[in-house]
Amino acid sequence: MFRRSLAVFSALAVAAFTFAGCAQPTPEETTTPEGPNTEQIVIDTTFDIATIDPGREYEPTGQIVVKALYDTLLSFADDDTTKVVPDLAGYVANDDLTEYTFSLVGERLFSDGTPLTADDVVFSLNRMIGMKGNPSFLLDGVTIEKVDDQTIKMTTEEPSPALPAVLATPSAGILNSKVVKENGGTTDETDGAEKYLNANSAGSGPYVLESLDVASSAVLVKNEKYNGPQDPTYDKVILRNVEPATQKMNVERGDAQIAMGLSGDQVAALDKTVNVASTPSATVVFLFLNQNPEINEWTAKPECVAAVKKALDYDSLLELAGLGASQATGVIPSGFLGALPKEEALKFDLAAGTKGAEDCGMAGQTIKLGFPNDIDPAGTSLTTVAQRVQQQLATAGIVVELAPAPFATEIDAYRDGKAHMGLWYWNPDYMDPANYLAFGPGQKVGLRAGWTAEMNAPIGEKVAAGYTTGDLDARKTLFEEWGRAMNAESPFIPLIQPGSNVAHQASVTNVYYNPTWLINVAGLGAA
Amino acid sequence: MSQDSEQPRAIEEPPSPTRGRRSYTGLLRYLGRRLVLTVVLLIGITLVTFTLTNLVPGDPVAAAVGQSAADDPAIVERFRKEFGLDKPLYAQYFGYLGRLIHGDLGTSWQTRNPVVEDLGKAIPATMEIALSAITMALILGLVLGSVAAHRRGLISDQVIRLISLLGISVPTFWTAILFFSIFYYRLGIAPGSGRLSPGASAPPRVTGMYTIDSLIAGDMRTFVDAAAHLVLPTGVLTLFTVGLLTRFSRMALLEVLDKDFVRAAHAKGLPTRSIFFKYVLRAAAVPILTMVGLAFGSLLSGTVLVESIFAWPGLGSYAYKAASQLDLLAVMGVGLFVGVVYLTINLLIDIAYGFIDPRVKVGS
Q: CB contact, 8 Å: B344 with chain A?
């Protein structure tokens, strides 16, 4: 009977795998002898999609999809995020950057064949503001009005040099207002078009939506009516929700052509047949020490902050981030106007750090380090970074007690400014250095570190100027000066600018990482 | 015996002309009592889930809208209003119960879909691998458990016990990675992640289980594709469950094999096969069935890591994401479903006892 049981078990296993093996298409079946297969491309990533309604979506995976379905007034060329370029429109601005006039370029068509007009632009952007969805804060204080069918005017209460970069984000995508209105769309909180837009697209982008399941996949097919400047290669784009460990095997086997969520370690271990497009991300991983003495009297002392800055071995921390990572030279990462050069980054000096900690009284004190332990920004594990920070500061006599928590829990302590010391990350909302002014005293992120406006008025003045200065050269100088002052006097310690690694098969070309929309699927090519 | 169910009572009752009708009435009365108890337990589940989720330190709004948007009061206010978080906790809870009566589990803020709709997609996906795994595990577990019991102490018994111990002890996520790595990545004899090959369309929805729906639609190509994708996740879950059922079957059968009536049957010269199938297996069926029910419940609610590795959009993945984002209504929806599953399985098992074991009678 035992032998029979074994036989049954073996027969079942063999049958199952024979069946599975016969049923699956091999990678070879997806190529054609005539040339590259452009029928479809499979992109594996880790989903965080909640919606693909442009006026509401604000998650990285959502940006990939929305970028493919909807055009924006302005855009960026490939991975160059330092300069906006026209997409649907070109623009001129007045001298104090409070009034922008956009002129639509040519006659672009929506996927139903109707022309895109100024009415669609005004409706789409007012809808984004009025619905008060996640990205609505991007256009706070902006008034949008139609001048004529081809012209739109936007006015802002304060000078707004960052507005063009904001309008290049996929959330500012332009919808077919007629279709959206027919499906419950309005420009206020009563809008009811989200469900429709999660099942159908209503844009002028190079692709249209075939299907979306926020748990598993998004399928896009070419927009036959597209008449914009891009020339999409693939007829169908399939984005799949796959965990990083599985992504690696899928892209190596050829079942997926692109894997977007690999950590530095996984990228390093990739099969040599897989290419990697590696660029610095726009993410900054940083440490902060709370300046509120009621939270912790030691972290609040500027001398102690200076000691911690010296006690950290930045090169050693960088080892944890993998391919493409670099030391963050300031809170503004490389690739942005005003980013500091490498030589101006904070430097490790253990002796000075140890002495500083001793002098300010921090040595021997226990400092709690809070951080989210379920988030790996750009593939960098905050848990391992925190552990190494703990080791390094211990060498300088500072006792760090790790206090991790899931993001949903830890963000409360962070936003309320209750953490002694925090290890966090910042992803830009739009590609303009003004986005990083939030780290200033009295600003959003500054206050999370208990750093109020009156604690450093000179840096505060630079922040105010940073929000309103329009001249390019003056901005560059201003942001550089601000960055130096932040490195010297702020409670923030920029640690790592992780790399963004997109693993792809050699058959896929033109793979560019863009921090705003991660990857432009319409720009991908085939070899 | 099932853990949280009312115990059916074993009653030795002399046969009587009215026995059949009385049993039927008793069964109905028993079912009525169980139904009331089920409703009470489900309300308890909602209360516990709601309380625990609200006790977790953290702001669901910040978790849902992101760092920047969470600092905009207008966005936060709109979000709270949209999902009813602007109301006092008691009002949120009773509002939930009120909607629950109409089958409305609210809207998930991680997917923006009604929770009922999300569960309607996730449950069949998990059910498909759970049903395959429990069927395989039951067949193999019974066969291996029987062999081990019959050959107690012999080498084959030792080998089976070792295999079953390994099945239980090895974490399923590790087995999942191992299976995926060997059979898909190295050998290429199994398909990759997901429920279907990239680009393949799901069959028209009837049950939500792709293998069954494709058969109903007469679409053999999709059936073969869906079934092939089932092999690896089913294999992983089967390995774990078969270890459990083998050990339990062996234990239950050994207990029965030592009984006097089995010895008597042997002494009467009845064929071994008849003794096993007619007497031993039937007597051991009650505890085995209980374990099958519990194992099935566990498969439905505890497959998160396997689903994650095979990119299987099932209940485990949904529950994990909901919990990590403090998606209260989704968490409560999953909690309710798992509660219903366990209560239903226990009820079915308790009723089945009456048919399997003549000594057991429900009701009276």
A: no
Interval A61-112: pLDDT, tens: 899 999 999 999 999 987 778 789 999 999 999 988 899 999 999 899 999 9
Task: Please report where in the chains the tokens 């009525």 appear, as a residue.
Answer: B32
Q: Kindly report, residue by residue over B77-135, the tens digit of the pLDDT.
A: 888 888 888 899 899 999 999 998 888 999 998 888 999 999 999 999 999 999 999 99
B117 and chain A in contact, CB less than 8 A: no
With a cut of 50, say whether residue A425 has pLDDT above it.
Answer: yes
E-strand ranges in A362-465 read: 366-372, 399-405, 421-426
Work out how many domains chain A is built from and give that number: 2
Give domain status of residue A15, yes or no: no
| Position A31 in a domain | no
Residue A388 lies in a domain: yes
B248, burial (CB in 10 Å: exposed 0-12, middle 13-18, buried 19+): buried
Domain identity same for A233 and A328:
no
Element (H, E) at A492: strand A492-497
Q: Which residue of B has its CA nearest to A425?
A: B67
Please state the ipTM of this predicted complex: 0.78
Do A408 and B69 make contact, defined as CB atoms within 8 angstroms? no
The verdict on A224 and A314 lying in the same domain is no
Calpha distance B358→B361 (Å, rounded): 7
A12 inside domain: no
The whole model's pTM is what? 0.84
- Domain membership of residue A329 as a residue range: 284-497
Q: Which stretch of DSSP H or E encloses residue A503?
A: strand A499-505
